[in-house]
Each structure stands twice: as C-alpha cells, then as structure tokens.
Specification:
There is one protein chain. By secondary structure, the protein is of the alpha+beta class. It is 28% helix and 22% strand. The chain contains seven helices and eleven strands. Strands 1-2-3-4-6-5 form a six-stranded antiparallel β-sheet, with helices on both faces. The protein has a three-stranded antiparallel β-sheet with strand order 7-9-8, with no helix packed on it. The longest helix is centred in the last third of the chain and has 17 residues. It starts with 9 loop residues before the first strand and ends in an 18-residue tail after the last helix.
Amino acid sequence: MPARERLPALNADPAPVQEDESAVPSADPAESAALAADPETALRLLREGELTVHGRLTDASNAVLYCTASLDGLTAPCVYKPVAGERPLWDFPDGTLAGREVAAYEVSAATGWGLIPPTVLRDGPHGPGMVQLWVEPDPAAEELLALQDPAGHEPGWLPIVRAEIGPGRTALLVHRDDERLRRLSLLDAVLNNADRKGGHWISAADGRLYGIDHGVTFAVPGKLRTLLWGWAEQPVTGEALDVLARLADALDGVLGERLRPHLTPAELAAAAERVALLRRTARHPMPSSDWPSIPWPPV
C-alpha cells in the first residue's frame, strides 16, 4: 500500500487568532522520536511551553491545529485540538473528546508500553484543548498494512477482511504479525477504541510504534472498531496478562484518580470491567455482531 503522509495540507484556522504561517516548521524523525521516548521532558514542554499555531490539518473532521511548543530553548511540533473545535457526536457527550485523548495517554503510560505520544490537557490560543507531541514517521519504516491475494495471506501477515478494490476485483487486507501492533490491539480493547484506522499509528525512527487519535474511546457500550483483528480470539501473551493485572490495580488507585476528571463513573467502571474480562478470558476479543467492526474509511 502507498506510504501515508503524516502532515496533510494546512490552511489558516478561521478563529480570530493570528497564526504564524511564515514558516511551518518540519519535524526531524530522530529528534521527535527521542523526545517522545522522554515523557518527563515532553510533558513539561507541552504543559508549560508557549504554543504557536502554524495552521490547521485539513483532512480532520474536528479542529486539529499544527503547532510548536517552546520552553527554555526547546521547541518541538505538537498537535492542539481545542474543545471548541470538536464536532458534536450522537454517541459521545459534547466537549469530551480532548479529555478522552488524555485519558487514553494515561492508560497507555500505565501499561509501560508507551504506545501513545505524551499528551496533556491545557489552555491554548483557542481555549482549553488536548496538546500531543508530534511524532514524525520514519520514512524508512516498513509498511504495516498491505493488500494481498484474496486466496490467502503471505507469511508474516495476518488477515483483516476481504476488500473490494474495483469492479469484480477483491484483495485481502492484511496487517503485519508485529508485536507492537499486538500490544496496540490489546490497548484498544481496554480503551474501547471506536476508530483504529490504518492511518492512526506511526512508526517512529527509533523503532517504537505510537497510536494517535483517541477521542472516541471509553464509551460504556462496546464500540471496538479497528483494523487489528489478526489476533482475534487468540490467547494474549503472558506479558500482556501481567500488564492487565497492573492495570486492574492501577484503575483502583492512582490511575483511576488521574482518569476521574476526564471520564464519568460509569465509563471508569466499564474500563475496569473490560480489563477484568480480558484477564478472565485471556484472549483477544472477537468482532462484535452488534457493531461495525471495521472503521470507515479504514485507512
């Protein structure tokens, strides 16, 4: 499948705040990977740094602003999603998507896997919003999705779904049998992520994998919608069971307190129930028959 661009076209945001469009800064893959792997430094920069808006990512359904954060001589690109720019959704309370992104980061951090870039909730040029470190993709990273012969997948790949690619033509959509994706699939099951598209993960220059766009997470009803179905009903790894045990304890303690400002009591309880279910079954979940299991568009 063709490589995906991390930075789509920018345009001026319509809100009455002056953006600096004179020079949209680029991100060096190695530098952004190193900062993402140093969450203490990155979180301080995101919380306390001065935000400068350079433009708006035009392919996003909600307001997503490309910015830089600067503090004590350190400047790094980041994404700023103001609450005021969130489009109302029928199945999520208005004005809650930014907080859900922060909650997803907190859960990811608690796993020890570091699968979501450093993320904070703070005030910005367009009001309160989510600010997340920008991770520039490694241009040399191997593709994690592919279209293959519908008769069967190649070794090292796992099937997702047969896709129609033209009149009378089908192909098998597959993802790599990659431990980083497997961890991400389990995190999505905990988060109840309703939108794990193929463009919602990034391969960083240091070999880490980061998931992005977690605004539609933590619903109480099951809404898991993902491309990472290759491990459906397979046993989870021993490492993952250890992580789930730690998450269960953390949700009853410090992690639960950190999530409380962003989620309702029912949503917190549902997250704990999902962790408990994964521990009991010790298997990756199956697609639901009551909810579309593949996001649209998938990539």
